TrEMBL record:
HAMAP family: Guanylate_kinase (MF_00328). Belongs to the guanylate kinase family. It catalyses: GMP + ATP = GDP + ADP. GO terms for cellular component: cytosol. SMART domains: GuKc (SM00072). The gene is gmk. InterPro entries: GK/Ca_channel_bsu, Guanylate_kin-like_dom, Guanylate_kinase, Guanylate_kinase_CS, P-loop_NTPase. Its EC number is 2.7.4.8. This is Guanylate kinase.
Amino acid sequence: MDDLVLLILCSPSGAGKTTLTRHLLDNLKDFTFSVSHTTRRPRAGEQDGREYHFVDRVRFQTLIAEGEFAEWAEVHGNLYGTSVREIERARAEGKRGIVFDVDYQGARQIKAKLRDAIGVFVLPPSMDELRRRLEGRGTEDAAAVERRFANAWHEIEHYGFFDYLVVNDDLDRAKAAVLGIALAERHRRWRLAPTAELLLKAR
Ligand SMILES: Nc1ncnc2c1ncn2[C@@H]1O[C@H](COP(=O)(O)OP(=O)(O)OP(=O)(O)O)[C@@H](O)[C@H]1O
Ligand SMILES: Nc1nc2c(ncn2[C@@H]2O[C@H](COP(=O)(O)O)[C@@H](O)[C@H]2O)c(=O)[nH]1
């Protein structure tokens, strides 16, 4: 049993997992974000080491060869990977939870390695709304939006693999749902059993 809550957030691009992750991390200070590596170019406002570790393909391939990744995948034409060091960092910092913002391929690999990981799949309320959000974000050109939108069907096909589904329609409700899931997982009996046992020892 893993003391650390391993929370995977997955969704088609633009459904809102970054927005929901930020809210979760603002509210649960003992959770941390797993900063992935990517070959994607930084968006305006993104900082190396905060949103991602931005690397080129050669460096990424070297990291794969060196066994640095707990999982990695090609998503929308770029490489993305979760470093094992991120999980080690969370443990070393005494965090109680870590959030992985990964695609379904990454989710599958994390679950295969870390059996206690919990998967949350975020659904858009409709495909029209998903397209509006992707276009409205303004971070990708038209071709990249099309590519991400086309991949959305394939992502959604994998919803059955996840433990929880959250429909991100009303943002406040979706935020509360994701926070609620993280809190519930943090309060699993086996995670808090040592506290109960300590109390019993004082009898
Ligand atoms: N419930 C919501 N209602 C309306 N707009 C929303 C809602 N949730 C998120 N958005 C907006 O939709 C856009 C996409 O959200 P976000 O970047 O969080 O998606 P994402 O799933 O992380 O995408 P990607 O996988 O591409 O990183 C953003 O502009 C965000 O502000
Ligand atoms: N398998 C992994 N997927 C990842 C990782 N980090 C992010 N992602 C996923 O990529 C897409 C696109 O992200 P964007 O920031 O370019 O919009 C999205 O589905 C992310 O969840 C990772 O380490 N591994």
